[in-house]
Amino acid sequence: MEAPADGDLVERLPEDVLVDVLRRVTGPRSLAVSRCVCKAWRAIIDGEGLLRRQLPFSGIFICFRRLCLPEFFSRPASAGQPIISGKLDFLPRAIELRPDGNYYIEDHCNGLLLLQGSYIDDHYVVNPATRWWNALPLCPDNRGDYFLAFDPTVSSHYQVFQIPYLDWGKYEINPLEETSEWPPSPYILHVFSSRRGCWEERLFVREGDAAGTVAKARVRFEGQQNSVYWRGSLYVHCQSDFVMRISLSEDKYSVIKPPTDIGWSSYLGLSEKGVYCASFVENAHILVYTLTESCDQFEWILKNDYDLKPVQMFDGQVNGPWTIQDINYEIFRSHLPNINKEEVIQENFEWNSDDDDFNENLDIVEVQHRPYFEMEVLGFHPYKEILFLSRSEDYKLNAMAFAYHLNSFKVEKLGSIYPTGHDYFNCSIPNESHEIESFPYTPCWIGETPESVN
């Protein structure tokens, strides 16, 4: 009698046994390979959210230009989960109390942070969860912005792209240059590869039309210049609000023009269905779009127009369930005057980012009578259609964070994002998006690190 093949034996396993086996697979790459075995395994891994547990959404890093270090706004870890610290005290350069800061987050991708140090030429790739870091060598041309591409389900290696920035305050202008198309094709970019350990010039050919001319693109960027890494492509939010989609494997790029009715301070982010864009418009509303791609054609689809009045008009303060770690206060407290830091007492409710259903027992925001006008986008939930917002009074008092559930239209208050000792640090949490930048963070507990390590 012929013995059954191994594949037949696996297919005979009860589903609950197979689920338990797959739950024991460690490492995002191993799970990603398992997901490709068959449709049944893919359905279990996706249905149980096993890959998401390898990259759990744990909080939001917030950079205040006037603070020395980024702050981390997080929900306290559940029982059995490792505590994520936003401190960067393991990095090589000593942290000092200085007005121009020490480390500033330029980008985040799947658990890695791209940091700029005290000097414009200092760049580091950091994994806060494992306290691993790598200093990048000097880029041949530092006139640009830096963006990170990393997928731990494919490789432990990462790439850093330097995208040229057109100086909008340039006094000497070449008329011929101003009429040329932007971005050019071919487009030569400096790219750092951790596999090779050096910067290289790479040539990318454009598919489709340019965004316009150099003159039209030479504008001041209003908002946070984000990037999104999605399915092997890097989407970069560029000047004049177009998005550049860079295919890493094909050395090609495409220009995606912004939605026709886009407002101001638009925010590019990653969420459940891929690439999203949020943009403020008049009368306390925000528009949220999703990007669709078909036959090399791109289209922004309006998900909805969301009323922000429930967030603006909420009157009161909430202690938790999320808290800001007060990294700057804890590190520099010996240099600060006596500050009575209030003990944060958690209120009796929980926030579960992995729960598809909105918890009706949560304390829902109700419209009151005190206006709060200044608002910021803090980011999108990477796995659920949730938009995070901050709101504050004049002079940024009572700054709080909210979760706007985009399908149920319900708003949940999360907690204060106002750092302790902000007056001493001269941190007024300014409303301009280029003064405050935020990055939803998914820690990655990878077992290996690239060869070029500290």
TrEMBL record:
It comes from the Eukaryota. Gene3D superfamilies: 1.20.1280.50. Residues 13-54 form the F-box domain. Pfam families: F-box-like. PANTHER family: OS03G0653100 PROTEIN-RELATED (PTHR34591), OS03G0669900 PROTEIN (PTHR34591:SF13). This is F-box domain-containing protein. It comes from Triticum aestivum.
